[in-house]
Structure formats: structure tokens, C-alpha cells
Amino acid sequence: MNVIETRIKDLLIFEPQVFVDDRGWFMESFNQQSFEKALLQRGLDVPVFVQDNHSVSKKGVLRGLHYQLPPHAQGKLVRVVQGRAWDVAVDIRKNSDTFGQWVGVELSTDNHRQFWIPAGFAHGFIALEDNTQFLYKTTDYYAKECEGSIVWNDDTLSIAWPVHEDISILLTEKDKNAVNFSEI
């Protein structure tokens, strides 16, 4: 497994080794020992995953930027198993040196990448193809009373979403009514 560090030390991209032959391909989609080793080598906390989620989105569906606050803050290990998505994590830890900074990465069927987003980050993605299937492991259960949402196109954050003429943004009411970054 190849581990790619990002400009925010806590956010990591994992590229599993994919074995391809005339039958198709095989990969380990998760290995606890390898995951722990990668985090510990970088001085990061090792989480316990308690829930797996799976969503399917049409092209242009934008989910986020979502987060959960303590005592139910969630870390997420995310990947796309069909289609393509642009995935973004924003540091919302107020005492962090990277507070308000973001990292974006394309996740797809073809690149098999996974993105580790620890607790303390807002998370969102836009589906770049129809039938984009997104899987994520979480470190805490969903808790409505702890959830929050930052508007996806916040001026302060200036996230470089890959929005083109051929993509119409589709949002839920919750995401349409999300707050500005300055309000969190």
C-alpha cells in the first residue's frame, strides 16, 4: 500500500496494491494492521471504526460539507467503488495550525484511492459521474444533535470544486441552508 501525505499532516491518501490479470483484479480494500502502521509512523491516533455507510449519487450531487462535533465527532475512511467523485476535507479544529485549510482528492473506480479524514474535519464530495457509489467507514455513530454543515461554496474557504458547464449542482435542503465557515 502506498501512503500519500497531504499538506495537512492528519489527512492521508491510501493507494492499495491492485493485482490485475486476465480474470480482472484483486485488492485488499482494508487491512487494520497496515492502516494502523501508516498512522502510527506519522504520530497519528489510530481510530476504531463502528459503522460503514454506502451512498449512490447522480452526477452533480454535492454532499457536504458535513461534520459532527464532540462527543460524537466522526473520522471517516472514504472511497469510491463505482464512478468518480471529488472529495474534500476542511480542518475545523479551532486550535489547529491548519484551521480553515482544505485538501481535495479525486476518488474513482480506476484509482482505488482511499482518503483518511480524522475527527475535527468537515467533509464533502461531488459526484463527477452518474451512479457514483461512495463507501465510508466512520469512527462514531451518526448523532443528529451533533451534526453541522458548512456551505459548499463558502467564500472564505475558496474550495476549488471541479464544477463545469456539464455539471449541475444538486443539493439537499440541509446543504442549501448550511452556514458559512465564519459561523462555526
Automatic annotation (TrEMBL):
Catalytic reaction list: dTDP-4-dehydro-6-deoxy-alpha-D-glucose = dTDP-4-dehydro-beta-L-rhamnose
Keywords linked to the UniProt accession: Isomerase
InterPro entries given in the database record: RmlC-like, RmlC-like_jellyroll, RmlC_Cupin_sf
One GO cellular component, as annotated: cytosol
Swiss-Prot/TrEMBL GO biological process terms: dTDP-rhamnose biosynthetic process; polysaccharide biosynthetic process
GO molecular function, a single term: dTDP-4-dehydrorhamnose 3,5-epimerase activity
Pathway note: Carbohydrate biosynthesis; dTDP-L-rhamnose biosynthesis
Domain of life: Bacteria
Positions annotated as active site in the UniProt record: 66 (proton acceptor), 136 (proton donor)
EC number: 5.1.3.13
Site feature (Participates in a stacking interaction with the thymidine ring of dTDP-4-oxo-6-deoxyglucose) residues: 142
SUPFAM superfamilies registered for this protein in UniProt: RmlC-like cupins (SSF51182)
Enzyme class: isomerase
Family of this protein: Belongs to the dTDP-4-dehydrorhamnose 3,5-epimerase family.
Subunit field text: Homodimer.
Function: Catalyzes the epimerization of the C3' and C5'positions of dTDP-6-deoxy-D-xylo-4-hexulose, forming dTDP-6-deoxy-L-lyxo-4-hexulose.
Protein name from the UniProt record: dTDP-4-dehydrorhamnose 3,5-epimerase
Organism of this sequence: Acinetobacter qingfengensis
